[in-house]
C-alpha cells in the first residue's frame, strides 16, 4: 500500500476541487466582464478585483488543506505562475486574471490526477449522481 494522498474519499476530493474550479472561473469571468464594460475605470477597480481573487485563493487553500495529506498541493496552488507575455491591456488586470487562470489550471491538474489515479467515474443522470471508484461493482447513487 502506498502513502496516503487524500484525507477524504476521492469522490469528495473531486467535488471540492470542482466547486473551487467553478468559483475561480466565475470570479475570472466577473472581473473580465467588469474590465471590458468600462476600461477607463479599471485602475480604480484593481484593489477590489485583487481582493476577490485573494479571497477565493485563501478559501481554496483552506479547502485544499482539508483534502490533501501534504501541504505541497497548497503551496503549488498558491504559487502557480501564469506564462509570461506582453499585452496591450492594463497590466494589473492581466496579472490578476492570469494568476486566477494559472491557479484554476493547477486545480484542474489535481482533479485529473485524482480521476486517473483512483479510477473515479462520476456521471450525472437526471438529478442522480452516479459515482464509481475503481473497478468495484459498488455504485453509489446520490440524489
Walkthrough of the structure:
This protein has four helices and three strands. The protein is mainly alpha-helical and 143 residues long. It has one domain (10-118). A hairpin with a 2-residue loop joins strand 1 (120-125) and strand 2 (128-133). Helix 1 (10-37) runs antiparallel to helix 4 (91-117). The mean pLDDT is 87.
Strand-helix topology:
Layout: H1 10-37, H2 42-67, H3 72-78, H4 91-117, E1 120-125, E2 128-133, E3 140-142
Major pleated sheet: 3 strands, antiparallel
Report the uncertain regions: none
SS element count, helices: 4
Count of domains: 1
Helix content: 55-70%
What global shape is seen? elongated
Total count of strands: 3
Q: Could you tell me the mean pLDDT?
A: 87
Largest sheet strand order? 1-2-3
Strand content: 5-15%
Helices and strands, in order, run as HHHHEEE
CA radius of gyration: 18 Å
Which structural class do you get from the secondary structure elements?
A: mainly alpha
The separation of the N and C termini measures 33 Å
Briefly summarize what is shown:
With 143 residues, the chain is mostly helical.
Descriptive labels:
three-stranded antiparallel sheet, mainly alpha, 143 residues, single chain, 3 strands
Amino acid at each position: 500500500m502506498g502513502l496516503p494522498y487524500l484525507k477524504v474519499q476521492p469522490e469528495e476530493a473531486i467535488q471540492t476541487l470542482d466547486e473551487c474550479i467553478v468559483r475561480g472561473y466565475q470570479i475570472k469571468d466577473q472581473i473580465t466582464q467588469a474590465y471590458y464594460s468600462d476600461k477607463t475605470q479599471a485602475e480604480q477597480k484593481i484593489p477590489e478585483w485583487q481582493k476577490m481573487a485573494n479571497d477565493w485563493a485563501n478559501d481554496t487553500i483552506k479547502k485544499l488543506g482539508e483534502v490533501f495529506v501534504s501541504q505541497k498541493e497548497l503551496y503549488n496552488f498558491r504559487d502557480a505562475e501564469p506564462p509570461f507575455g506582453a499585452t496591450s491591456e492594463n497590466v494589473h488586470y492581466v496579472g490578476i486574471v492570469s494568476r486566477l487562470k494559472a491557479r484554476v489550471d493547477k486545480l484542474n491538474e489535481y482533479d485529473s490526477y485524482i480521476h486517473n489515479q483512483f479510477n473515479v467515474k462520476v456521471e450525472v443522470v437526471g438529478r442522480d449522481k452516479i459515482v464509481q471508484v475503481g473497478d468495484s461493482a459498488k455504485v453509489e447513487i446520490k440524489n
